[in-house]
Amino acid sequence: MNSVPTNTQQTRPASQRRAFLADLGMGFTGVALGAMLADDGVARADQAPASAAPPLHHTPRAKSVIWIFLSGGYSHVETFDPKPALNQHAGKTFDETPFENPVLSPLHKKRFRSVPAEEVNVRDVYPTIYPMQVGWKQHGESGIEVTDWWPHLATQVDELCFVRNMWTTDNDHAAENQIHTGRHRLDPQEPSIGAWAHYGLGTLNENLPKFAVLGGPTRSDTRLSIDSLYLGPEHAGVPLTLDPRNPLPFGKRQSSQSLERQRAEYDLIHRLNALAAVEYPRDRDLAARIRSYELAFRMQAAVPEAIDFATESPATHSLYGLDDKSTKLAGERLLAARRLVERGVRFVQVFPSPYGVWDSHRDLKKKHTELCQTVDKPVAGLIRDLKQRGLLDETVVVFCTEFGRTPGLEKRSGGTTGRDHHPNGFTIWMAGAGIKKGHVHGATDELGYHALGEAHYVTDLHATVLHLLGLDNRQLVYPGRRRLDIDFGHVIDEILT
After folding, report:
1. Which of 432, 417, 423 is nearest to 405 (CA)?
2. Are the beta carbons of 319 and 313 closer than 8 angstroms?
3. What residues in the chain have per-residue pLDDT under 50?
4. pLDDT 10s digits, 333-348
5. Which of 378, 401, 432, 478 is most exposed, with the fewest beta carbons within 10 Å of its own?
6. Domains plus CATH for the chain?
7. CB contact at 8 A, 63 and 394
8. Alpha carbons 433 and 452: distance in angstroms, whole number
């Protein structure tokens, strides 16, 4: 007679039952219920435990990455790709040299995408050759050419692998984001390389972030360089400061609050969040918030210790240039990077210089002389320190910038002493686990204009780094999201051991 089931608990969907239970109230009974359900796995039925390590795609060569980025675009021809032809033909136009005019090459349009309309854009097409502003020598047993602005790093060339045929497309400073995401400013954005590494790897230390950021993002509009976007906020980079008393912005316990009281506060927040998770089990932002509160609490003790240099010897302080005002900033950030990977942080993104300072449209000689001096000793010290501690065998070091600088003299607004942005060809270098030592891969043409041969877009660098961490970039996908082929890149096999 009765067509309605008498036991509604048997027919109500699980999500409705959870919502019903959550709606019982927000008193302590409801909080306790939410916490118990969360502990039993009900509230996170579709969430893997935060500490669970996802399966790797192949045997990793490296455990961690230190990614060093110089904002503004250093000149490749005055750092790691010297070009004597610039001196031989200084003052001539491209058409007056024995070489093909690089602006007329099909590669120019392929690797040059201007944000302003093409008819008003003048960047990268300056035809008058500007000579090199510094000398260079061969160094090490490998005989690799490095300019005289890098005397300390030059002693480490036999540990480094230079990739001289990188290219990108963005010719304004949104390229700072592009080198980290693979996407041009005018295109829909993708997660950063650090976020993909975070997404694909398990943690090696529950008390520290998997993806830490030192010195960045350099501005609000470069947040994309550490962002995780659709991967979820839990995979974004965590900016740290180098003040041991307050290393986590907005994460310091108030002096009036005891540790026990804060722990009780976090416990209550966790229970309230868990109760909400009963009703909204697929809310990824909520799940990330729960994990972030717990990580933030644990980091309050672990991060200050990790960036406290008091236990480092005077020799180590000197090695990184902490005893010199001009090198101290970069030295502190790079020493902190070593201490973080030593403690199990997977990906450390380091900005050793402020935003845009390498952008030498004017006074290139003066600016690069000063800027190279600020990072040369600290970076060389990092390589030496990692090696002597055995960490270089399990760490990948990447040293990069957003683009190179033009072989031609920038004449905008009457300029006579600088170079403009140059995405068509530039140099980065790598060192460490799985990377060839004392090796040069690829080349630019005689004038340093175009990356030659099977040149490498920025996502090839991403694919190579992820490969060394045991991740196949083509298998590293997010459900429901489709990436372009260029987003995946190709592993630079020629530089691997």
Report:
1. 423
2. no
3. 1-12, 14-52
4. 999 999 999 999 999 9
5. 478
6. 64-242+307-495 (3.40.720), 247-300 (no CATH)
7. yes
8. 26
